[in-house]
């Protein structure tokens, strides 16, 4: 049976994640309030930001930046995009 959550990004009941995507309380919060659809979209955006902005995940500032962008994305606030990036058609 599919688990549903009231997704904070889409403000509707959607299929939930299978597991918490992060350890600790933040992962549990995301598990309880973010849909699988929203999380997969975030992962695509995160990958694009890492690649296009050449982020080094060993750098604490890069991880902090991605955490801020994740919260903005999931809360429907404006997020960064790589300059000149065009999504594939």
Write up this protein.
The structure is a single chain. This protein has about 90 residues and is mainly alpha-helical. It has a single domain (about 5-75), classed as YggX-like (Orthogonal Bundle). About 45% of the residues lie in helices and about 10% in strands. Strands 1-2 form a two-stranded antiparallel ribbon. β1 (about 5) and β2 form a beta hairpin. The longest helix has 17 residues, at about 35-50. It is globular. The N and C termini lie far apart (about 35 Å).
Q: Provide the CATH topology.
A: YggX-like
> Separation of termini?
34 Å
Radius of gyration, whole Å:
14 Å
Rounded mean pLDDT is: 92
Helix content: 40-55%
Q: In DSSP terms, counting alpha (H) and pi (I) runs of 4 or more, how many helices?
A: 3
What is the chain-wise order of helices and strands? Answer: EEHHH
Oligomer: single chain
CATH superfamily: Fe(II) trafficking protein YggX
Largest sheet: 2 strands, antiparallel
Judging by the overall fold, what is the CATH architecture? Orthogonal Bundle
Structural class: mainly alpha
Q: Notable features of this structure?
A:
89 residues, mainly alpha, 2 strands, YggX-like
Summarize the entry for a quick read:
By secondary structure, the protein is mainly α. The protein has three helices and two strands, in the order ββααα. Strands 1-2 form a two-stranded antiparallel ribbon.
Question: What's the layout of helices and strands?
Answer:
Layout: E1 4-7, E2 12-15, H1 24-33, H2 36-52, H3 60-74
Antiparallel strand pairs: 1-2
């Amino acid at each position: 049976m599919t688990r549903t959550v009231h997704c904070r990004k889409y403000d509707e009941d959607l299929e939930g994640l299978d597991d918490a995507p992060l350890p600790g309380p933040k992962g549990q919060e995301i598990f309880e309030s973010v849909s699988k659809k929203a999380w997969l979209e975030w992962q695509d955006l995160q990958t694009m930001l890492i690649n296009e902005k050449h982020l080094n995940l060993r750098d604490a500032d890069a991880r902090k930046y991605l955490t801020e962008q994740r919260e903005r994305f999931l809360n429907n606030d404006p997020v960064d995009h790589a300059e000149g990036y065009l999504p594939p058609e």
